[in-house]
Amino acid sequence: MKRFLPLLGILIVAFSAAYYINLQNQKSKAKVRLLITYGDKEVTPMGDTLFHTVGAFNFVNQLGDTITEKSVANTNYVVEYFFTTCHSICPIMNKNMMKVAEKIKGDNGFKILSHTVKPEQDSVPAMLAYANAHNADPKQWYFLTGDKKQLYALARDGYLLNTDTTITQPIEDDFIHTQLFVLVDKNRNLRGFYDGTSETEVSKLISDIDLLKKEQEENEDK
């Protein structure tokens, strides 16, 4: 019996060392998260966390080009909903969005998606005129119009905007009017909500863009 004790001790030490190394490897592979991820999530049997993801979409931008989720693949982006004839919060929102556009200027890893809530009036020419009035670079700032049901469904189910479960009217009579900007990462996960009429909140969005980029850089280095 005694002759087996040293062997048992060696096995215990070896097992402990292997367990410690495996634990350290798992920690080193854990993703860095400098910003909150919003929406429902679930943990798989393997221990991976699956976060809420923005679904597929198909719209047209101010140049008449089709824009889908593939157009922003591997790209971070900021989202808003507005309409061109709005004279209340929208002018303030898009004046502030111009600051975001200036922040991401020349950065191929970021875009802005501005969706209309009145596609029946916001035609491609109307969106182009509005985009030009805001000096929008069509390569980075998309003004999107298209099917109203899809625009609204994406707002509520994808971006979790204006999620009022008490709404009972038909969608054709429905109306979304929100001042919120949404920060979406490369995986189409929601990373932040900001009041687009508030300079303080927009400044935070601009800071969070830097944090998101830092987070992604750190994870790429692992």
Summarize the structure.
The protein has a single domain, classed as Glutaredoxin (3-Layer(aba) Sandwich). Helices cover 38% and strands 18% of the residues. The protein has five helices and nine strands; from the N terminus they run H-E-E-E-E-E-H-E-H-E-H-E-E-H.
Instruction: List the helices and strands in order.
Output: HEEEEEHEHEHEEH
SS-derived structural category = alpha/beta
Which residues form runs of ≥5 with pLDDT under 50? 7-28, 164-172
Percentage of residues assigned to helices: 25-40%
- Tell me the strand order in the biggest sheet: 7-6-5-8-9
CATH class: Alpha Beta
Rg, Cα atoms, Å? 23 Å
State the fourth-level CATH superfamily: Glutaredoxin
Shape: globular
Ends: how far apart? 46 Å
How many discrete structural domains? 1
Please give the CATH architecture: 3-Layer(aba) Sandwich
Can you give the mean pLDDT? 86
Number of helices: 5
Q: How does the major sheet shape up?
A: 5 strands, mixed
Key structural traits:
38% helix, 9 strands, globular, 18% strand, 222 residues, Glutaredoxin, alpha/beta
Structure description:
- The chain has 222 residues and is of the alpha/beta class.
- It has a single domain, classed as Glutaredoxin, CATH 3.40.30.
- The protein is 38% helix and 18% strand.
- The strands form three sheets. Strands 7-6-5-8-9 form a five-stranded mixed β-sheet.
- A hairpin with a 5-residue loop joins β1 and β2.
